[in-house]
């Protein structure tokens, strides 16, 4: 049984109107993402689940594709952390299609919102994380010794009639991290601690092939990445267990050590239910490739990455969040979004 764990992989949505939720639902179903009803996220329902699941704190992330919405979303999450400082942390979203805007949001999130870390998506409005335009962004995150959570785009178009969250997210993750590897990002910015969602997607399964063939003469390798670097840089990543533990932990542990495996629930999105999250958590707790102590440590391995959040554990919170509460630096209300 989990107790006092930290969940690195918690999604949220700022308050929305019923009309907006209805429109979102129809758009998802049109893309073969066949959720049965409009989805509404609330902090109260999430905290209720965390209490039942033995989760002490959840790191919140949300990655809207428009800059104003992204900034408002970060503001809203910061307001939740202020209200529930011992239960939530903030991974501030970054608009990685716009380096100047991303740098500005890093500064704002660090100094005004007091974010615990940052969240990025593999493909943000057509720009992948290995794009050279992001060098200044990585340099600043490296200077900050930042923790960066990498998540695929679960709302990408359907493939062969099936929604992206089913399997495409795993391949997008693998493609993106491999591109970052060959771009020299892990070599040049070694002080960033990267956490990759869903046990790294398909990457751990393919990591042996990458180590075997990745430096062959027929593979473009402009930065002359070596076999040793491939092995060491992949091993330096952190992988969360979200929605992949039943079959994902064994290949993940071929790529990273047990202390680089961290707990993720994939909470707060319509593709996760309490039943699927609990089944996935049970797979972590029952995994026989690790000792009981190592399995339990999965829920606490992120503590060293987030000292400020760790310091908030056990602190008395200020009280419940009113969904009508205004938030954000511009005082915008989320109730009509």
From TrEMBL:
InterPro entries from the UniProt entry: ACMSD, Amidohydro-rel, Metal_Hydrolase
Ranges for region Disordered: 313-337
Keyword tags: Decarboxylase, Lyase, Metal-binding, Zinc
Name assigned to this protein: 6-methylsalicylate decarboxylase
Alphabetical GO biological process terms: secondary metabolic process
Similarity section: Belongs to the metallo-dependent hydrolases superfamily. ACMSD family.
Recorded catalytic activity of this chain's protein: 6-methylsalicylate + H(+) = 3-methylphenol + CO2
MF terms (GO), sorted A to Z: 6-methylsalicylate decarboxylase activity; hydrolase activity; metal ion binding
Compositionally skewed regions (Basic and acidic residues) per UniProt: 314-325
Enzyme class: lyase
Domain named Amidohydrolase-related: residues: 6-299
EC numbers on record: 4.1.1.52
Matching PANTHER family: 2-AMINO-3-CARBOXYLMUCONATE-6-SEMIALDEHYDE DECARBOXYLASE, AMIDOHYDROLASE-RELATED DOMAIN-CONTAINING PROTEIN
Pfam families: Amidohydro_2 (PF04909)
A GO cellular-component term linked to this record: cytosol
